[in-house]
Amino acid sequence: MNTNRxxxxxxxxxxxxxxxxxxxCHTASDRxxxxxxxxxxxxxxxxxxxxxxxxxxxxxxxxxxxGDLETGVWASAAWTRPFRDIEGDHRPRPHFRTTAKMLWDxxxxxVACTMEEPDVWATxxxxxxxxxxxxxxxxxIDPDGDGNEYYExxxxxxxxxxxxxxxxxYRLDGPAExxxxxxxxRWAIHVDGSINDPSDRDRGWVVEMAIPxxxxxxxxxxxxxxxxxxxxxxxxxxxxxxxxxxxxxxxxSRVQWDLEVIDGAYRKIEGRPEYNWTWTxxxxxxxxxxxxxxxxxxxxx
Length: 301
Fold this sequence. Notes:
mainly beta; 14-stranded mixed sheet; 1 helix
């Protein structure tokens, strides 16, 4: 899809804002096998570095999702440090800058990320396509921080969502529930440049997401086995909404591939692995070690 640099806005859809504006960890093989539910990750390596923390402010006004992360509601939210290589600072620094910020209210966790990218590219355009086979942004959330029952939400520049629920990490034989969807997820994509047009140089893209707390409950089958639903809140299952002073575990990942231009279109350079850039390092090429994710502290002010 070639687009020019004029401003375009797609209509808001029920699954999310999908307001697309143009303003002019894994190794691939590990993740392919793991997310198919057949791979078991290698044992994790010991590290002596504490994960990063983020102080997430509560907001009384939802962000406007207009791509401006410096003014309005987003102005009160702190930026994360620039993403580093997933294996830590001993690896080369990422050649494109990535930073994120967060806010929350009683209904949503708001996540925004800005990514430098001179060649904005994506082709996967259907829900639950494996978008990390191309460039993407990823969110991993473990609400109670126990390393089990966690959520993975990925998005590419076209607004294609790949989301799943994991009972346990893959290395512990944890199955992935690909049938789970964040039904109430809202998002917006803003591109400074064009998509899939090698004739120009882009500046990058911004993603804004509103992740509903209500969706962050383990999925279960309906009694007739026909579809997924969310587990009811009982005395054995926490309220999915956080309270001020509560801490969750979270990490972000950006997957980036080296590209070349063939017959006027972007292609991944054959034989080159992807880059995995994260907010807080995992110290190995494996996002599925929740104990190494960052700490998300919910605060009122």
